[in-house]
């Protein structure tokens, strides 16, 4: 969303029999990395299935501003990269809008270069912590200027020769892991990242695919040591981006909850670092059939057939958090309609997403009549399968705090609540899933954007 765009509220209403077959747009994590690595590599990269959400488009603009040539031909994006180590100094601040991934990974990618780069974003991104990436960059010799608390705007100035470091990632974060590895690409010697808890591994897999010398060793406790040889050659690749499991979560949970539903979702990325939600829903009794499981471009992919199911509450262990991190808001909605209580642990990272998602979810659930308790790093939801009394008879709207996943989760909730559910702003949905409204209404969901918000 461009800065200061007018919010558009949206409302969803009780629906029946969602049905049809849909193809989910490309995975956001892989799309960001496709633009970055394609923009950096020598020669041509050809990407199909790219997510054309605002977050990813901002990454493409940043790569262009640093010398990559990017164009679209029919349904493929063609990139001519600068060659590793040959990014150009951006002439203006790089604006990442709402995207933590685009901003933090690019800080790693270009921050170690011997020139200045400035990073800005929207009101949500400006509140998010950047110290988690700036601290390892400082260790590598990067000069950092930032707003209080290591917030945006940030300006980075790399040293003549960056120091290769060994960095143990202090929180479960693929963004931090990736930022350090990307900084290592333009650093002489071996950059080592130790990852005590495994997070999504797209950076490792894709860098290997582009020809980087990168190895991963996993010890008996699951601690991963990732070693990257800096200043090697990257070569353009052909990439077909699989469907985003985090976007899949919304029609999937909607189909489980709405009576009479039978929905098939095609081409979903099933990388095990991303499938925590499916596992959890299956434990809750969800009827999710995994069809045509296959490998494409080095990733597991499958089609999912999802039918309406009676769910029961479960306890979701802390170690599941990295593999379903962005799916907790919509899991909380599923839990609101399950028999019994669901408790989710290990949610501390939810507090530093586009919003404080733990509070945003708990507030939205309470506003719509759900009995839940917000803990420091946990959420307990007492479910009510009938949804009786849920929603808002007065039209009180959930505050989305510029957070796309809060907007989509509560619009799913309204499809099964007694009264409609409203959200104060649906514009941010375009950051990750611009096709959400059309795909959902195409399945029979009653969701409507209200154009008449006060300016
Ligand atoms: O690396 C990535 O592509 C992402 C990592 C996760 O963030 P953290 O690394 O901050 O957990 C996730 O929430 C985000 O949507 C995408
Ligand atoms: C957390 C998310 O993205 P980002 O950190 O890239 O803003 C998300 O998409 O849910």
**pLDDT averaged over residues:** 97
Strand content: 25-35%
Strand order of the largest sheet: 22-23-1-24
Structural class: alpha/beta
CATH topology of the largest domain: UDP-n-acetylglucosamine1-carboxyvinyl-transferase, Chain
Structural notes for this entry:
It contains 13 helices and 24 strands. It has 455 residues and is α/β, with parallel strands linked by helices. It has 2 domains: 225 residues, Enolpyruvate transferase domain (UDP-n-acetylglucosamine1-carboxyvinyl-transferase, Chain), CATH 3.65.10; 213 residues, UDP-n-acetylglucosamine1-carboxyvinyl-transferase, Chain (Alpha-beta prism). The strands form 6 sheets. Strands 22-23-1-24 form a 4-stranded mixed β-sheet. A 4-stranded mixed β-sheet has the order 2-15-17-16. Strand 10, helix 6 and strand 11 form a beta-alpha-beta unit. Helix 1 runs parallel beside helix 7. It is globular, with a radius of gyration of 21 Å. Bound molecules: shikimate-3-phosphate (S3P) and phosphoenolpyruvate. Phosphoenolpyruvate (PEP) binds next to helix 3. Shikimate-3-phosphate (S3P) binds next to helix 3 and helix 6.
């Amino acid at each position: 969303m461009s800065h200061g765009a007018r919010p558009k509220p949206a409302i969803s209403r009780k629906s029946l029999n969602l049905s049809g077959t849909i193809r989910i747009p490309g995975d956001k994590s892989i799309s960001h990395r496709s633009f970055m690595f394609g923009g950096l590599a020598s020669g041509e990269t050809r990407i199909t299935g790219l997510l054309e959400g605002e977050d990813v488009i901002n990454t493409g603009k940043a790569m262009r501003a640093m010398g990559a040539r990017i164009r679209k031909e029919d349904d493929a994006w063609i990139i001519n990269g600068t060659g590793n180590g040959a990014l150009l100094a951006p002439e203006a601040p790089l604006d990442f809008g709402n995207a933590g991934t685009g901003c933090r990974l690019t800080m790693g990618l270009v921050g170690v270069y011997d020139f200045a780069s400035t990073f800005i974003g929207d009101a949500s991104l400006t509140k998010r912590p950047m110290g988690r990436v700036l601290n390892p960059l400082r260790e590598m010799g990067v000069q950092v200027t930032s707003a209080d608390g290591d917030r945006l705007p940030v300006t980075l100035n790399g040293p003549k020769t960056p120091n290769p470091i060994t960095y143990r990632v202090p929180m479960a974060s693929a963004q931090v892991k990736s930022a350090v590895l990307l900084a290592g690409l333009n650093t002489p010697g071996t950059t080592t990242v130790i990852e005590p808890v495994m997070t999504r591994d797209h950076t490792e897999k894709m860098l290997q695919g582009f020809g980087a010398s990168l190895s991963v060793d996993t010890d008996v406790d699951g601690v991963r040591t990732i070693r990257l040889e800096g200043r090697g050659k990257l070569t353009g690749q052909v990439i077909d981006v699989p469907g985003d499991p985090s976007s899949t979560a919304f029609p999937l949970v909607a189909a489980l909850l709405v009576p009479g539903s039978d929905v098939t979702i095609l081409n979903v990325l099933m990388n095990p670092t991303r499938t925590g939600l499916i596992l959890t829903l299956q434990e809750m009794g969800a009827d999710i059939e995994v069809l045509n499981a296959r490998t494409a471009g080095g990733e597991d992919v499958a089609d999912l057939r999802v039918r309406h199911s009676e769910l029961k509450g479960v306890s979701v262990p802390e170690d599941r958090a990295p593999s379903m991190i962005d799916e907790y808001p919509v899991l909380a909605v599923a839990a609101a309609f399950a028999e019994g209580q669901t408790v989710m642990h290990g949610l501390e990272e939810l507090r530093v997403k586009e919003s404080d998602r733990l509070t945003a979810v708990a507030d939205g659930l309470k506003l719509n009549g759900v009995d839940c308790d917000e803990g420091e790093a946990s959420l307990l939801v007492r479910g009510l399968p009938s949804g009786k009394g849920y929603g808002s008879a007065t039209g009180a709207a959930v505050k989305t705090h510029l957070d796309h996943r809060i907007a989509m989760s509560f619009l799913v909730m309204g499809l099964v609540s007694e009264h409609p559910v409203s959200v104060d702003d649906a514009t941010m949905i375009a950051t990750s899933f611009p096709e959400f409204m059309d795909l959902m209404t195409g399945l029979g969901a009653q969701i409507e954007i209200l154009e008449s918000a006060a300016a």
